[in-house]
TrEMBL record, chain A:
Protein name listed in UniProt: Urea ABC transporter permease subunit UrtB
InterPro entries per the UniProt record, alphabetical: ABC_transp_permease, ABC_UrtB_bac, BCAA_transport_permease
Transmembrane segments: 234-257, 292-312, 372-391, 456-480, 486-505
Membrane topology: Multi-pass membrane protein
Organism: Belnapia mucosa
Pfam families per record: BPD_transp_2
Signal sequence bounds: 1-20
Domain of life (superkingdom): Bacteria
PANTHER family in the cross-refs: ABC TRANSPORTER PERMEASE PROTEIN, BRANCHED-CHAIN AMINO ACID TRANSPORT SYSTEM PERMEASE PROTEIN LIVH
NCBIfam families registered for this protein in UniProt: urea_trans_UrtB
From TrEMBL, chain B:
Keyword Isomerase: no
Transmembrane is among the record's keywords: yes
Descriptive protein name: Urea ABC transporter permease subunit UrtC
Coiled coil spans: none
Species for this entry: Belnapia mucosa
Membrane topology category: Multi-pass membrane protein
UniProtKB keywords: Cell membrane, Membrane, Transmembrane, Transmembrane helix
Gene (name only): urtC
Organism taxonomic ancestry: Bacteria, Pseudomonadati, Pseudomonadota, Alphaproteobacteria, Acetobacterales
CDD domains the UniProt entry points to: TM_PBP1_LivM_like (cd06581)
């Protein structure tokens, strides 16, 4: 029994191409005839599924197919012509181009689509499904059903199913139509909706079913829209989070207002650029320059921060307004120095290959990879900061100095060193924010100025001295900005957010997550 | 709080000598347009450039005075005073735009060029009234005053002080800049207003218009100096200084701190608005760049360089920093931002009382 099936299978396998080849050769002469004959031949070639049919039909579509005076069909092969039936080189004398009319073109599109459906290349199969979706006819139902049955790629199958539903909608079978309408409703895409709207006028009997499906699609679409807005908001929020985390340490924890913070972010972005340029010559290293630039940016910004704290800021502790002015001046100098060193024009930091492209989440939500990575990076940095403050010796000393400087000093903590390290730590985080920003914004000397005000808003909104407040503040501001944008435009959304924060401070002058008890006294 | 900065001691670097220097300098300044009228080959002739630049600097000095009143006396460090200055400028700019009338490029009888270009059919409602000069001047004072009143009320009521207030005012001017950059605001978008023709019947960009605007600015400067000085010496001024140095204590003594601060903040914004209104006809252009936070903070550094809480220091700072800027941006433009940044650092570290403090130390 087993053997019998095997033999039968082998026989069938042998027989199928043979029969197909027969059909292929049988269809060829028609191509030399009138437009009607050509169209019939094309349709036959499309259903035969012979591998040689695809190049032949393509040549026909491009107007390169020739017919010899004796009726043989000649296919261009490089610069020469070959007999389409035998594959032997043929004489081009007296050959003329096989001409097309609209009917042939239509037949060609369908036939090519069906042939491509069985192509070994997944991208070609997907393209074929899309082509059928556009040109849909009742004849496509069968080949599509066969193709779907053996399709292994889920993404391609989804597109084939959409094309099948489209074909079934124009086929006469009433129950298949209802089935197709239900499946289109479940697919929940813009194309499916357009298809259903078109079918609505053509099928008066099915209007209720179609309307149910359209309503379902619209629900899906608005949910997806909301999810994508949320995602964009979260990614903007994590950019703000990164920029504001450093501030939460220097301003929130130390109480030092650093207007040069944005310039530290800018330094981090330029460090990323420099690491990228350094890695450019080493092919195996080049895709990993971005992860490498994270420590580089941290160290450069942290060194700048430590120098600023030791050199200048420590002399005017306790005079916040002077600190504000002085650090603003430092920011100006840094900006101008970078402008002179690197030029005023934007520098390009390219995304590594593993960060490019769009990711499709379940439910058809598309997210750009680099934005996704920024969210991941922002959360990772937040966790690192929390861990550093909670679990390390440095974090312990830092908290001690913040709570009570004198007693901390009595306990043997070198408060000056802790101050410098804390400030360097906060500045280093700003540098890491610069790495993330280099992926979504232009790296230019005034990169930081655009973010500094927003970052301060995040810290003020979330509550000075609270990392949780910074997280919630940043994500809230990011999402609110992105939700408002479609209604008010980016600029007015920003203005609105600023006004809202001012009003919010009326209710909670110390922010969302205000410190309570003794620590709150300042 | 910065308790180190008491009001300058009476006596000391003699009030008399300070006053004499000031009067001398102002007299010299007042002579400039007269010297400008001398024949060009005269040794005392002063170029048009110097007159127009000093006219501009006088309006800067008024702005610095306004900042000093709020910061030096009441301890309110506003990083958004440039916004009040620019709003005053926009108010007079709207008037100047209306005066162009049909002489614009498009020749529309009422609409300014940019409105024709943007497809406006009629003047927006908030442009009505600006064809009258008194109304425009009123708005140049009232709009900044109103804005300062709202922001100040919200901020001082919830006891937002120090750097928080600075950041909020900076956010305010930043938001205004973004808003004025928009074309659909009806204020000319990023091009702002320019191509002015005349003011009060006199064609701009003539020697007589220049000197008239110059003397108007000088008069306003003297008026503002007198008003601020009077406030500083009054009981109100003493309460303001007390608020600056120990806000809570003044509150517990029964003074209404919020109202005092609100008064001085609104007054300061109004003076800044008037300064802007005199600035725009002299430079002939106003655009949203005037709202940029950098401008406001630059004005603050004038006051810091001169010496805050002294009024005269504000004038000294505005003139000297701008003189340095004009000179350096022609000699070595790349160095100017280094110099400005260096000024921020040097003044806060080494000259907390500014040039005036340096002089009084030298006098001792």
């Amino acid at each position: 029994m087993k053997h019998f099936i095997l033999v039968l299978g082998v026989l069938l396998w042998l027989a199928l191409p043979a029969r197909a080849q027969d059909a292929f050769t049988a269809a060829l002469p028609g191509l030399a005839g009138g437009f009607g004959d050509i169209a019939t031949s094309v349709e036959q070639l499309g259903t035969a599924g012979d591998p040689r049919a695809l190049p032949l039909l393509r040549a026909l579509q491009e107007g390169k197919l020739q017919k010899a005076p004796d009726g043989r069909i000649l296919l261009p092969q490089g610069a020469d012509l070959a007999d389409a039936a035998t594959g032997q080189p043929a004489d081009a004398a007296g050959a003329e181009t096989v001409r097309l009319n609209n009917r042939v073109r239509q037949a060609l599109r369908g036939a090519l689509g069906r042939l491509q459906l069985v192509s070994p290349d997944a991208a070609e199969r997907a393209a074929a499904a899309d082509a059928i979706f556009r040109s849909r006819s009742a004849d496509d139902v069968k080949p599509l059903q066969t193709a779907i049955a053996r399709e292994s790629d889920a993404g391609v199958r989804a597109r084939m199913e959409l094309a099948l539903a489209a074909a079934q909608l124009v086929a006469p079978d009433e129950s298949a139509k209802r089935d197709a309408i239900a499946r289109l409703g479940a697919a929940g895409t813009v194309e499916a909706r357009a298809l259903l709207l078109e079918a609505r006028t053509a099928n008066p009997g099915l209007i209720t079913a179609i309307d149910v499906s359209i309503a379902s699609i619209e629900r899906t679409l608005s949910l997806r829209q909301a999810a994508e807005t949320l995602f964009q908001g979260l990614s903007l929020g994590s950019v703000l989070l990164l920029a504001a985390l450093g501030l939460a340490v220097t301003f929130g924890v130390m109480g030092v207002i650093n207007m040069a913070h944005g310039e530290f972010v800018m330094l981090g972005a330029y460090a990323t650029f420099m690491v990228q340029e350094a890695c450019r010559g080493i092919p195996w290293l080049a895709p990993w320059s971005l992860p490498l630039s994270v420590p580089a940016a941290f160290l450069i910004a942290a060194a700048a921060g430590a120098a600023l704290e030791r050199g200048l800021i420590r002399h005017i502790y306790g005079r916040p307004l002077e600190t504000l002015l002085m650090t603003f001046g430092v920011g100006m100098i840094l900006q101008q120095a970078v402008r002179l060193a690197f030029g005023a024009q934007n520098r390009e930091v390219s995304s590594p290959p593993w960060m490019q492209g769009t990711l499709m989440l379940p439910g058809g939500i598309s997210v750009t990879q680099n934005r996704l990575w920024i969210i991941v990076f922002g959360i990772a940095v937040l966790l690192l900061v929390v861990a550093a403050i909670r679990f390390t010796r440095f974090g312990l000393e830092m908290r001690a100095v913040v709570q009570n400087r004198r007693i901390a000093a009595t306990m043997g903590i070198r408060t000056g060193r802790v101050d410098a390290l804390t400030f360097a730590f906060g500045s280093g985080i700003a540098g890491m924010a610069g790495v993330a920003l280099s992926q979504i914004d232009n790296v230019s000397p005034n990169l930081g100025t655009g973010y500094i005000i927003d970052s301060f808003m995040v810290v003020v909104f979330g509550g000075v001295g609270s990392l949780a407040g910074t997280l919630v503040g940043a994500l809230t501001l990011g999402v609110v900005n992105k939700v408002l944008e479609p209604y008010a435009g980016a600029v007015l959304a920003k203005v609105f957010v600023l006004v809202a924060i001012m009003l919010f401070i009326q209710r909670r002058p110390r922010g969302l997550f205000a410190l309570k008890g003794r620590a709150a006294e300042s | 709080m910065s308790a180190s900065l008491a009001a300058p001691a009476p006596g000391g670097f003699g009030r008399m000598s300070l006053r004499l220097v000031l009067i001398g300098a102002l007299l010299l300044l007042a002579l400039l347009p007269v010297l400008n009228r001398l024949p060009a080959d005269s040794a005392l002739h002063v170029s048009d450039f110097i007159v127009s630049v000093s006219g501009k600097w006088i309006t800067y000095a008024i702005l610095a005075l306004a900042i000093d009143l709020a910061w030096g006396y009441a301890g309110i460090l506003s990083l958004g005073h440039g916004a009040f200055f620019a709003l005053g400028g926009y108010a007079i700019g709207m008037h100047l735009m209306r005066l162009i009338g049909p002489r614009g490029v498009y020749g529309h009888p009422t609409l300014p060029d940019f409105m024709v270009f943007l497809g406006y059919k009629e003047l927006p409602w908030y442009w009505s009234g600006f064809d009258h000069f008194p109304f425009a001047i009123l708005m140049a004072v009232a709009v900044p005053g109103l804005l300062a009143g709202i922001v100040g009320f919200l901020a001082f009521r919830s006891r937002i002080t120090g750097v928080y207030l600075s950041i909020i005012t900076q956010a305010l001017t930043y938001a205004l800049m973004l808003a004025f950059f928009r074309n659909d605001m009806g204020f000319g978008g990023n091009n702002g207003f320019t191509d002015f023709k005349e003011l009060l019947g006199m064609p701009l960009n003539t020697p007589s218009a220049r000197s008239t605007l110059f003397y108007a600015s000088l008069l306003l400067l003297l008026g503002a100096l007198w008003l601020c000085g009077w406030i500083a010496r009054s009981k109100l001024g003493r309460v303001l200084v007390a608020i600056r140095d120990a806000e809570s204590r003044v509150r517990f003594l029964g003074y209404d701190v919020t109202q005092h601060k609100l008064f001085v903040f609104v007054l300061s914004a109004m003076i800044a608005g008037l300064a802007g209104a005199l600035y725009v006809p002299q430079v002939g252009i106003i655009n949203p760049g005037e709202f940029s936070p950098g401008n406001s903070i630059e004005a603050v550094i004038w006051v810091a360089v001169g010496g805050r809480g002294t009024l005269v220091g504000a004038l000294l700072g505005a003139f000297s920093v701008n003189a340095l800027k004009t000179w350096l941006t022609t000699v070595a433009p790349d160095l100017w931002l280094f110099a400005l940044g260096g000024l921020f650092v040097a003044v806060t570290l080494f000259l907390p009382r500014g040039l005036i403090g340096l002089f009084s130390k030298a006098a001792k």
